[in-house]
Each structure stands twice: as C-alpha cells, then as structure tokens.
Amino acid sequence: MARRVVVTGGSGKLGRAVVADLRAHGWKPVVVDKVTHPDRDVPSVVADLRDLGQATEVLTTVDSRFRRIDALVHLAAIPGPGLATNSATFENNLMITYNLFTAAVRAGVGTVVWASSETLLGIPFKTPPPYLPVDENYPARPESSYSLAKHLEETMAVEIARWNPGLSLTALRFSNVLDDADYGRFAEHQADATLRRWNLWAYIDTRDGAQAVRKALERAIVGYEVFVIANADTVMDRPTAELVAEQFPEIPITRELIGHETLLCIDKARRELGYEPQFGWR
C-alpha cells in the first residue's frame, strides 16, 4: 500500500520538487501550505500552521479525503533571513515547527523529516569555520534570527525524540536551494569569489534536495539525526582548493580537495541515507 505523507510548504520551490519525487516513487503526498499546489491532481489543504489545532487536524483527518498519515515532511517556513522582520521570522518558524512536532506525536505519525539549514554551520562565515569542509560535527553557530530558530528547532527535536522512543526525527541542513532557472545567473559571480563566499560556494538542486527527503523517509532512523545536504560541487568554475587558498588561507583542511568538490561535507548523508546528487548546473 502506498504510504501517505503530509508535505508542509509543498507549494514552494523545494516543496514542488519533493512532491513530484515522492509521487514518482510510490508515495501519496498531501500538500499543506498557505496556497494550494499548482497541480490539481495533488491533494492540497490550506492551513495556518501557527495554530496547533489546524496543525493537528492536517495530521489526522480533513473531511473524508485522508484519514491516515504515515509520515510528515515539514518544509513550511519563512525561507531565509531578511525576508521578514527578525521577530516575525523567529516566531513564525519556531512556532510552526513546535506545533507540527507536537501534532505528529499526538497523531501517532512516527517519521518526521524537516528542513533545517546550512546557516547553522556559521553562515555567512564572518567568523571563519573551524575547519574545511564543514560538517555536522561541530556545535551550531547561528548568526541570524532565522538560523537561531533553526538551531532551537534542532534542540527541540533532540528532546522530543528522547521523550518519545521510537520516533524518527531527521533534520536536513539544506544548502541554498536552486533550480534550472537559477543557473543562468552563475556567470555573474565567477570573476569575484567573494560574492558567494558567504556559504562556501555551495548549493542544492531542488531535485537532489527531494531525493534527500525521500531517502530520509525511507531510512526513518529512530531518534534524532541531522545531515548536511548539498550538491557534490560548488557554483564556481575555479577549483575548490584554489578558492580556499585565496579566501580562507588560515583554515585547517581535513582532506585533499579534489576538483570542484563542495565544502559542505555530504559524507554522512551518503553513508547513512544513500544520498547521491544526480543533478546540477554544470
């Protein structure tokens, strides 16, 4: 039987790719967002997830269309710093995530995958990272209200997983989400490495982000886990080692940098989720 999954934020940039990928692999996604999904064949519910009652409803029953939810993919959020006031971003994102985690427990939804953020790695790296490539193994370094909320979401997940043995809560620290429409602008920053230094020249193609979500759902690792999710390369034509030597000459390098490899280490996602990027700009 196909498994039914609620995808919050499923009408957004990453969300649409996630929904398409899940449908292609036998899942039955139900989109929950502020606007309906553009594909009318996709069940879609408009809800205000800042309200715990509505968050609980979308994980239990909406009329007679769906009465059993097997998993939750939570992508709904103000998607970055500077898009709303600091307090609005913090309150909106943290409250929605709290409500959905709480609703999932109440509804008996045992698998939750949600969008955390590369910003927890220290972006925009005004304070340089402790080493390169960066990974999940050093403490979070939130530098904005947006990333502070993401940090608290991860902290909250640790405790909710502890309170509820058997629950799977997986945080995906997505890099800058891009798609084919964005790649034509990459020529603009090739001559000046400082323009994309802020996130170590990393990105995630929406289709590979969707793959990571699906792999996390399929693995359903019990407890709390976090993974950095990026494409395997950078957004630059220049080799990664050359970029690091120019922009981060004092930072320890933990391994030889080959070609255009990403500085957002995806080794853990490859090893534990079976994630392997398939798309990109080159």
Number of helices: 8
Strand content: 15-25%
Kindly, what is the distance between the CA atoms of the first and last residues, rounded to a whole number of angstroms?
38 Å
Number of domains: 1
Using only C-alpha atoms, the radius of gyration works out to 19 Å
- What is the overall shape? globular
What does the model show?
By secondary structure, the chain is of the alpha/beta class. The chain has one domain (4-273): Rossmann fold (3-Layer(aba) Sandwich), CATH 3.40.50. The protein contains eight helices and nine strands. It has helices spanning 13-24, 52-58, 86-107, 145-163, 180-183, 206-219, 240-247, 267-273, and strands spanning 4-8, 28-33, 44-46, 71-74, 111-117, 168-174, 177-178, 204-205, 223-229. The strands form two sheets. A seven-stranded parallel β-sheet has the order 3-2-1-4-5-6-9, with helices on both faces. It has a two-stranded parallel ribbon with strand order 7-8. The longest helix has 22 residues, at 86-107. The radius of gyration is 19 Å and the shape is globular.
